[in-house]
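User: Could you go from structure to sequence for me? I need the amino acid at each position, not a summary. Structure tokens:
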């Protein structure tokens, strides 16, 4: 267990967050959402982030992509502020976000097509890159399929391939497997572990699934209730890519139990605080408003 938010190995820092504070805009005034978050992710390292709903996990992820503005603090990717319009990061959402009218191969080529003319690969190179990634995620032979012809799990594999097509500095994943069944989810976790290991890509994955966090992460960062801060970091031993045996082994279960206890202890303290300041039943939380986005992005 490690209470310092530093890479487990002396790897070159890829992501650095220092003193990140952010708030939501509400009708009654600002609502703090991040409270001094510090973290570092090294090259080839996977950091999994878990925490209660509404603690700012997705806000943190969006700040790494340059989509959410911080009030104070800094975020850098290889020493530079993130740019929402660049291909420095690849983002995988909860739901597949493929263009239904394009083939699988064209969907994967999308990011490559957006590059400036000086750096845009040729059509032949785009095709070759897409086919390399299809093989990597286990979808060789599906290049001409439309998304509607694929299962949800297969669509998420295409999403993963598309996010990796531009060789991003870091891969950001927001609950990427929450919409699929348990067996598919476990299979996709193994695919992701194998893919990240093969490419050596740094990654940050936000998830509510503690077992998933421990299976995928070199470290698991636990966030507090809103306003979110990292209260503890657990190191995970075990070589990557991780196997099905590791996925259902005693070690993963033991680390998951420790992470769960840390989350539960924080939740119990929060509940006690609410009961001490609220007469009658604990007041229901209102839906979360949204953070201001970077200029030039749509609030949708």
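Assistant: Here is the amino acid at each position, in order:
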């Amino acid at each position: 267990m490690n209470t310092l938010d530093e890479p487990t190995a002396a790897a070159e820092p890829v992501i650095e967050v220092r003193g990140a504070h952010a708030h939501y805009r509400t009708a009654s005034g600002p609502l703090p959402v991040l409270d001094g978050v510090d973290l570092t992710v090294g090259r080839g390292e996977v950091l999994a982030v878990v925490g209660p709903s509404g603690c700012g996990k997705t806000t943190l992820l969006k700040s790494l992509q340059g989509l959410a503005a911080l009030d104070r603090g800094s975020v850098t990717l290889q020493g530079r502020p993130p740019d929402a319009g660049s291909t420095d990061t690849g983002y995988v959402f909860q739901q597949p976000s493929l263009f239904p009218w394009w083939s699988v191969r064209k969907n994967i080529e999308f990011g490559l097509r957006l590059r400036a003319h000086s750096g845009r690969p040729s059509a032949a190179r785009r095709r070759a890159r897409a086919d390399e990634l299809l093989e990597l995620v286990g979808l060789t032979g599906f290049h001409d399929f439309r998304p509607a012809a694929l299962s949800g799990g297969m669509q998420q594999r295409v999403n993963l391939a598309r996010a990796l097509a531009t060789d991003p500095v870091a891969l950001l994943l927001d609950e990427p497997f929450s919409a699929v069944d348990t067996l598919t989810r476990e299979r996709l976790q193994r695919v992701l572990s194998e893919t990240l290991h093969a490419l050596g890509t740094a990654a940050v994955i936000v998830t509510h699934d503690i077992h998933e966090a421990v299976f995928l992460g070199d470290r698991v960062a636990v966030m507090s209730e809103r306003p979110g801060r990292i209260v503890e970091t657990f190191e995970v031993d075990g070589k990557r890519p991780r196997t099905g045996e590791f996925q259902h082994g005693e070690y993963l279960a033991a680390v998951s139990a420790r992470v769960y206890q840390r989350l539960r202890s924080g939740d119990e303290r929060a509940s006690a605080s609410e009961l001490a300041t609220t007469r009658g039943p604990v007041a229901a939380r209102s839906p979360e408003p949204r953070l201001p986005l970077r200029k030039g992005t749509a609030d949708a």
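One structural detail worth keeping in mind: The longest strand covers residues 13-26.
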